[in-house]
Amino acid sequence: MVAHDLVNKLSAIVGHCHLLREMTEPGTELAKRLTMIGDLAKSAAKDLTEHQRELREAMRKPDKHRRLAG
User: Fold this and answer.
1) Is 17 exposed, middle or buried (0-12, 13-18, 19+ CB in 10 A)?
2) Is 1 helix (H, G, I), strand (E, B) or coil?
3) What is the DSSP letter of 27?
4) Over the chain (70 residues), what is each successive 10-residue block's mean pLDDT?
5) What is the CA radius of gyration of the chain?
6) Helix (H) or strand (E) run with residue 8 in it
């Protein structure tokens, strides 16, 4: 649940960066920084989504050690 909320917030950052880039002259330092921030937020959202998927898969798998001990 936490990852989902963070991904939503990161998506808002990406969207705002995109809107600000549209209002900024291309090639300026500001435009480059907005692009970098947006790209980092996209990458972080992608990583969080992947970790969340891996965690869900791990939770679905039966715990072999628990079965052997029990």
Assistant:
1) buried
2) coil
3) T
4) 88 97 97 98 95 89 61
5) 19
6) helix 2-22
pTM (2 decimals)?
0.77
Specify the residue for token string 């995109």: 18
pLDDT, residue 63, reads: 67
User: Which residue bears the tokens 């991904």?
Assistant: 7
CA angle, 62 then 66 then 70, to 5°: 125
- Is residue 4 within 8 Å of residue 52, measured between CB atoms? yes
Q: How far apart are CA 70 and CA 62, in angstroms?
A: 13
- Report the pLDDT value the prediction gives residue 7, as an integer from 0 to 100: 93
| Burial class of residue 40 in the structure, from the number of CB atoms within 10 Å of its CB (0-12 exposed, 13-18 middle, 19+ buried) | middle
